[in-house]
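go over this record:
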Amino acid sequence: MKITRMLLIVGMLLLSTTGFCSNQANNSKQIDKTIKVVVPQRPAGQKDVLALRCDPIKTVRIGFVGLGARGTEAVRRFTYQKNIEVVALCDLHQWRVDSCQRMLQRAGMPRAARYYGAEDAWKKLCQRKDIDLVYIATDWVNHAPIMLYAMEKGKHVACEVPAALTLDEIWKVVDTAERTRRHCMMLENCVYDFFEITTLNMARKGVFGDITHVKGAYNHCLWDYWGDYNDNWRMLYNIANRGDVYPTHGLGPACQLLNIHRGDRMQTLVAMDSNPVSLPAYLSMHGKDAEAKAVKNGEQTLTLIRTVNGKLIHIEHNVASPRPYSRMYQLSGTRGFANKYPVEGYALESKDLPVEVTGGKQFTAHEYMPEESMLKLMQMYKDPIVKDMEQKAKEVGGHGGMDFIMDSRLIYCLRNGLPLDMDVYDLAEWCSLIPLTKLSLENGSMPVEVPDFTRGAWNRIKGYSHAFVE
């Protein structure tokens, strides 16, 4: 009886082991089904622009293209910047150009050249010899064409998000930046929000240990904002396109935490979405039944990304459902946890923290640390950038001050010939979710390869950092 039972157990173990091996084989076959994305060969004579340094510019001369809500606000913020000159203003509508001109005059700044009326009026601005930086805040579809033209004319470019929409556009921007050796930065302001930049500094100092999982999102119901977009361009884009069409606010801070193309890189992604419901309802409510039936973008789009070093990124997009605003911003590490939405907090072991932070209190990483301790910790790890300009940023504003910090860092690096905080590969990687999630969704949520936009240089720089004058 005992021998029979023993044989039965051995047989079950063998079957279990065989089944496990079979599953492993099936999983390997599934991995082989990843959609491959072509990485074009770098053109002859070009090299990467990692940590690109250009000649210092004593006074940065700027041309603004696109003066809607975002562009006009940028001009306002720049009236508070030093060592800059607003040389030219451009928009399709004259009244917007004139409004920004009056803003400059009220600030005691010289009048700027004006360009308006024609769809390609921005080309004349880019052709000027007295402009160093073209600052772009148009509708999305015009971002890449203006960046490409401006770099060809020898200008540095800074472009609102998302800066490019297709893989073809992204590769053209990368190749042009490498060939012209011009800075090409996407204006991702969320990496400069106070919680994010402080948490990044803590992460670089090892407070959270080995970070294994990060989350980001753009969950923002736009029902009250759709009408603000000239000729309804943002709504039209969501009607015509499926996927995470606005990923950079969530992805940018996540990528900085994981040192993407500075020791790691995104390797594979999978996207899923739910059926569009709220956006069609909104359109029908406004008498646009034909458009309502044509909506392609899902109500909620979820993207999972795995990196070469085995880290996981979770990104969300939802601009349709009624819900509180959230960029999530969450990290999980081997020593602790950070979260911004809906509650700002850190979960860390008191035994790992100095007594000036804990105040002698005992707590564990299974719950948020006391607010008093959190504030002391954030003060201890306040980034030098924030220390230098926090008060001024809050006075000037721009999404609570992070926009002013973004502008200030851009000008600081250009004036001192330093690498920018975000380079063209950040632009490429963060924008690539737009076409790559679409590719995954349209192929039954198959895994999709994330291209190496550095073409092999992603591991040369070790760790993300901000550049400063020595």
The mean pLDDT is 93. The CA atoms of residues 34 and 347 lie 36 Å apart.
